[in-house]
Amino acid sequence: MYFKLSIRNAKRSIVNYLLYITTMTILLSIMEVSNCIAIVGKLVGFQTISLPILITLLLGILVGYIDSFILKQRAKEFANYLLLGMEKSKLSLMFLCEFLIIGIACFIAGVLIGFGIYAVLCIAVLHKENEMNISLFGWSILQTFFYFCLVECLGAFRKKNIIDKLQIRELICEKNRNQKIRNSNTYKRWGIVFIIDLVCLIGLLCAIVFLPKYIAFPILSFIAIPLLSSIFIFYKWLFGYLYAIRQEQPNSLYHKNRLYMIGQITSSLKTSAIINIILCICLLFSAMSFFCGVIILQPCIHLFDTDSQQWMGVLQISLCLIFIVIYFSVLSLQQIVELERESKGIKVLSYIGKSNKQIKELIKKQIAGKLLMPMLMTLLVLLFSIPLVNLKLNLLLPIVMHNILLRAVFCFEICFLLFYVCYFFVVYTISKQYVGIANYRKSC
Questions:
Q1: In which residue ranges of the chain is pLDDT below 50?
Q2: Cα(87)–Cα(94) distance, rounded to whole angstroms?
Q3: Which domain, by its residues, includes 373?
Q4: Which of 174, 200, 227 is the last residue of a domain?
C-alpha cells in the first residue's frame, strides 16, 4: 500500500521534484562521462579519478539542499498523514520510497545520456572509435551506480533523521519558516577575515609570478586553500550583510522593490550561501579548465605526445562546458521552483496596484540577479589573477603565444554570455507560465 502511495505522490508532486530530477539526471550523466574518461585515461598516461569524486561531493551537497526544499513544500501534507494516524516510521519509508523511485529513473536516464555524450566525444571529436566497447560501458555503469548508491544512502539517512525530529506543529509551520542568524553583526567579522584572506591570496599569486621557480612551485601546492576559503568567507559575509540591512535598516528598504528583493534573497540565506559557494567554485573550475584547454591545444606547446595532448585539451574544454551547464542548470531550476513557490506573493503585488509590466520587470531583475550572484567572487578572483598569470605566461611561452591567456578569457566570456542569455530567456518564459502573470488582472 505504501509503495502505491509513494508512486501516486511522486506523480502528483512532479513540480516539486523537478529540481531534484533535473539535478540528479545532469550530474549522473556528467558522472558517467567522467567515469568513462577516468577508465580510458590510463591509455594516454594520465588519471582523472578525482573528477567523479568531486562530482559526487557536489551531488551530495545539492541533493541535501533539494531534500530540505521538498520537505518544506510537503510539510503540511506530512502533518496531515500524522494527524490521520500514520506512524513516523511509515511516513519516512513512504518519503524515501518516492525518492528511490525517482532516483532510479534519474540514474537510468543519466547513464544513457552520459554514455551517449562520451560516444559523441570519442567518435565525432577525437575519432577514437576503438575506445568504445561493452566492457568500458559496464565498468563505468558500476562506478556510477556505486557513487549513486552512496549519495542516496547518505540522503536517506539525513531525511529520516529530519522527519523523526519534526513534530506535527513544526511540520505545519515549516513551509513558511525563514532561516535566521542569531547575531546580525557577524558579517563584520566575516568581512575582516575576507580582507585578510584576499590579501594573502594576492600575495601568494605575486610570489608565484615574481619569485624564482624553486620558491614559486611549492606555493602552487597550497594556493587552493586561501582561494577556496576566500569564496566561502565572501558569501558568508555577503548574505550576512544583506540580512543585517533587512533587520537594522527597514526604512531604507521601502523604495521601489528593495524590500521584496532582499527579503527573497535572505529568506533561506544559509542554504543560498552554500549553493552560491558551490556554484562559484564550479564556475571558477570551468574558467580554469577552459584556459588550460586552449593553451594545451596550441601547436607550439609540447607537453605530451600528439594524441595525449589532443585528448587532454578536449577534455579540459569539455570539463568547462560541463561545469557551466551545472552552474546554469541548478541556478535556473532553483529560480523556477522558487518563483512557483512565491506565486501567491507575486499575485499580492498585482492586487495592491502593480501592473503586469512592473511585475515582469521585477521577475527579470530577480532572475538576472540569481544567475549572476555566484559569479561575483569568480569575477573578483579573475580580475586580479588574470593579469598576473598572463605576465608569468608571457615570460615562459614563445612570442607568438604572448597574451594567449587574455584571448582565452575573451572566448570564455563570449561562451558564458551565450549560456547566460539562453538560460535567462528559458527561465523567464517558464516562470511566466508558473506565476501566471497574464491572468492576474483577469482574476482581479
A1: 438, 440-444
A2: 11
A3: 252-443
A4: 174
